[in-house]
Specification:
It is found in: Cytoplasm, Cytoskeleton, Spindle pole. The chain is mainly beta. Helix content is 0%, strand content 50%. The chain has one domain: Methylamine Dehydrogenase, Chain H. A four-stranded antiparallel β-sheet has the order 4-5-6-7, with no helix packed on it. The chain has a four-stranded antiparallel β-sheet with strand order 8-9-10-11, with no helix packed on it. It has a four-stranded antiparallel β-sheet with strand order 14-15-16-17, with no helix packed on it.
């Protein structure tokens, strides 16, 4: 097991032991990490993306510069098109945006960003948008170019990063714009059939919006028909 912490460390654990098997000291607080052997990527409070090689003797590998300007919130590693090894990762931020990073891009434009989890603002301006944090990202286990994003707007959306398109429109679990119904995290089962996500307050609006009487939920959804590449 691997854990990342606000104490600026990443620790590897053998569940049979009370002390960590290995500790990595990070330059800043660890906000999120993902591991897909043999690569681990962690995001820190200073918007750094720390890469590690976990095969043989785990060690620091590479530091990636973020394409995003605001605080990073989540990270998810994706496989190459053959599905044989990690080839890059996606990272989401509080600015309603996701960045795609390839470990070895064929050309610079292979690394790009896209907007998500945004909606009309309550202000009178026609052009104003309400921007929500991207809370989690999950990649399809079989169609390696497909990913899901979830946000503080209470919505999830499915995307095709290779074709740079949305494959399924945002599903709103929060029609009343209730901050207590954000989608804080998600996961996809190993067959790519079940999409699981949690609904509850994610603290993006501070303590004053918290209602202890509102209980969190875990939702399981069959996505066989909607979470697949579009026919050409």
């Amino acid at each position: 097991m691997v854990t990342g912490s606000l104490d600026k460390t990443i620790k590897m654990w053998d569940m049979r032991q009370a002390t960590p098997a290995k500790t990595f000291n990070c330059p800043e607080r660890v906000y999120a990490l993902d591991l897909l052997m043999p690569i681990m990527v962690a995001v820190t409070a200073d918007k750094k993306l720390l890469g590690y090689r976990m095969d043989n003797d785990p060690s620091e590998w590479k530091v990636f510069e973020s394409q995003l300007k605001q605080q990073l919130r989540c990270v998810s590693i994706f496989k190459n098109k053959a599905g044989t090894e990690p080839s890059g990762f996606a990272v989401g931020s509080i600015e309603g945006r996701v960045a795609i990073h390839n470990f070895q891009p064929d050309k610079p434009v292979d690394n790009f960003t896209f907007k998500c989890h945004r909606g009309p603002s309550n202000t009178n301006s026609r052009d104003a948008q309400e921007i929500y944090p991207v809370n989690d990202i999950a990649f399809h286990p079989n169609h390696t170019g497909l990913l899901a994003t979830t946000g503080s707007d209470g919505k999830y959306t499915f995307w095709d990063k290779d074709n740079r398109t949305k494959i399924h429109g945002a599903q709103n679990m929060n029609t009343n714009n209730d901050p207590k119904k954000s989608i804080s995290c998600c996961s996809i089962d190993h067959e790519g059939k079940i999409f699981a996500y949690s609904v509850g307050y994610d603290w993006h609006r501070g303590h004053e919006s918290n209602d202890p009487n509102t209980k969190p939920q875990i939702v399981l959804r069959n996505v066989v028909d909607e979470f697949k590449p579009k026919s050409k």
